[in-house]
């Protein structure tokens, strides 16, 4: 009897985790994509790390539009503002 109860609880737990992952994983992918997009707009080479993570998640979920955007951002030419600093002021304007 205890084994059957434990099995039922574990089945429910697995279902709850699966449901949570269906929400959390896509949001994490989009958050990483946004993070990389912002770093890329600033010319910061640190953009590649969150973009690579976003790419992995998007690919694993089959999110073709987000995957295409991530690939485009990862293959864009790397550039920094002419003075070599991050362009915070121009981003805020």
How would you characterize this protein structure?
The chain has 93 residues and is mainly alpha-helical. 76% of the residues lie in helices and 0% in strands. It contains 4 helices and no strands.
Q: Report the total helices.
A: 4
Globular, elongated, flat, extended or rod-shaped: what is the shape?
elongated
Order of helices and strands: HHHH
Secondary-structure class = mainly alpha
Q: Spans with pLDDT under 50 lasting ≥5 residues?
A: 87-93
Helix content class: over 70%
* C-alpha termini separation: 66 Å
Please tally the β strands and state the result.
0
Radius of gyration: 20 Å
Largest sheet: none
Mean pLDDT metric: 77
Q: What is the beta-strand fraction?
A: under 5%
Summarize this, please?
The protein is an all-alpha fold. The protein contains 4 helices and no strands.
Secondary-structure blueprint of this entry?
Elements: H1 2-41, H2 48-61, H3 64-75, H4 88-92
Helix pairs in contact: 1-2, 2-3
Distinctive features:
93 residues, mainly alpha
